[in-house]
């Protein structure tokens, strides 16, 4: 069982939800003080790469830079893939609010996937220290998002949370302040973007950029949710045969297969977690249902399909994108 370390949280000055797609920083007593994409833009050359932009400014440059500039995603599948970029982003995210803390390095609470390996945890702690934070403490993200969603995590009652992020989907059964069962699917909603890019490239010989893939994914998710799969979706990009910018129309139904694969992997993780849940806690989940958090839960499609496949009531948290940050805020505010 993953138990939260009591007494650690109230001592933190700030808390960080370093997500694959979005990074949020919460200040003690100040709420969310930073909420921007997890992206950096570096200029190569010299001894070390120079940070040119981070967060929203880096996103504005994404898909539009050429050498010596390079867009870097510090995380992949929920865990650090580039220490230098992660540490630069953390430093950037907390810099404006440094004056709010008393002298010294701020102490931080940081969310981490429940199944992160020791090496992945150590890398995150090292990046945080390198960014000027003291005593970084890690907490399991599904637990924190359950706190943020207002679930009764301390009660002697089984609660199931599915945190649907960009890089990882985490399923957890929580009771008495700890995680009893957890399952992870490495590869979250961002995998859909890449699958859409690959599909258009292979089937239509048509290339699109990351911003178009993200927009297309959201548009498709709402069409599929409202049962409008027969609609044609205009896609703007580069026609590879002609070598010219162009617009094509693709039936939403054609991309349904991509969604199905993603949803099936989540449903199978939920089923697996349920099958390993002690019967008493499973009965509680049968009564209370499943709660979804994370940005990918924004589409009702996911909740509907999980409810259909498990027969359990499935709810989306009130502000799914901010659940981890809301949980971190509650923990550091004591
Ligand atoms: N309306 C929507 N429909 C579908 N997907 C959405 C919608 N809104 C946001 N998303 C997706 O949610 C993801 C971002 O969610 P979130 O911020 O919870 O992830 P993260 O915390 O950065 O990732 P992780 O926890 O996996 O490291 C992105 O992949 C984004 O495309």
UniProtKB/TrEMBL annotation:
GO terms for molecular function: ATP binding. Forms polymers. The gene is mreB. Keywords: ATP-binding, Cell shape, Cytoplasm, Nucleotide-binding. It holds the Pfam family MreB_Mbl. PANTHER family: CELL SHAPE-DETERMINING PROTEIN MREB. Forms membrane-associated dynamic filaments that are essential for cell shape determination. Acts by regulating cell wall synthesis and cell elongation, and thus cell shape. A feedback loop between cell geometry and MreB localization may maintain elongated cell shape by targeting cell wall growth to regions of negative cell wall curvature. GO terms for biological process: cell morphogenesis; regulation of cell shape. Its main location: cytoplasm. It comes from the Bacteria. ATP binds at residues 20-22, 166-168, 214-217. GO terms for cellular component: cytoplasm. InterPro entries: ATPase_NBD, MreB, MreB_MamK-like. This is Cell shape-determining protein MreB. It is found in: Cytoplasm. HAMAP family: MreB (MF_02207). Belongs to the FtsA/MreB family.
């Amino acid at each position: 069982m993953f138990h939260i370390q009591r007494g650690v949280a109230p001592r933190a000055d700030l808390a960080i939800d370093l997500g694959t797609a979005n990074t949020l920083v919460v200040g003690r007593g100040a709420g969310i003080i930073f909420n921007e994409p997890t992206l950096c833009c570096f200029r190569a050359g010299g001894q070390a790469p120079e940070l040119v932009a981070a967060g929203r400014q880096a996103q504005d440059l994404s898909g539009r830079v050429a050498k010596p500039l390079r867009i870097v995603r510090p995380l992949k599948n929920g865990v650090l893939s580039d220490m230098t970029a992660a540490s630069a982003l953390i430093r950037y995210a907390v810099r404006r609010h440094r004056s709010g803390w008393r002298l010294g390095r701020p102490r931080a609470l940081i969310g981490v996937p429940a199944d992160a390996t020791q090496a992945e945890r150590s890398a995150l702690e090292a990046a945080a220290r390198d960014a000027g934070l003291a005593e970084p403490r890690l907490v399991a993200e599904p637990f924190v998002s359950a706190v943020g969603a207002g679930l009764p995590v301390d009660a002697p009652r089984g609660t199931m949370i599915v945190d649907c992020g960009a890089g990882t989907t985490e399923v957890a059964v929580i009771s008495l302040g700890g995680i009893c069962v957890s399952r992870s699917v490495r590869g979250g909603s961002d995998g859909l973007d890449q699958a859409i890019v690959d599909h258009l490239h292979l089937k239509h010989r048509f290339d699109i950029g990351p911003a178009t893939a993200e927009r297309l994914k959201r548009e498709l998710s709402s069409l599929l949710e409202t049962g409008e799969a027969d609609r044609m979706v205009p896609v703007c990009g580069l026609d590879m045969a002609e070598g010219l910018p162009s617009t094509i129309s693709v039936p939403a139904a054609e991309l349904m297969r991509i969604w199905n694969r993603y949803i099936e992997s989540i449903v199978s993780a939920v089923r697996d977690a349920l099958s390993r849940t002690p019967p008493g806690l499973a009965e509680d989940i049968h009564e209370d249902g499943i709660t979804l958090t994370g940005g990918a839960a924004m589409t009702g499609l996911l909740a509907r399909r999980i409810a259909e496949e498990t027969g359990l009531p499935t709810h989306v948290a009130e502000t799914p994108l901010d659940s981890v940050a809301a949980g971190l805020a509650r923990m550091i505010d004591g």
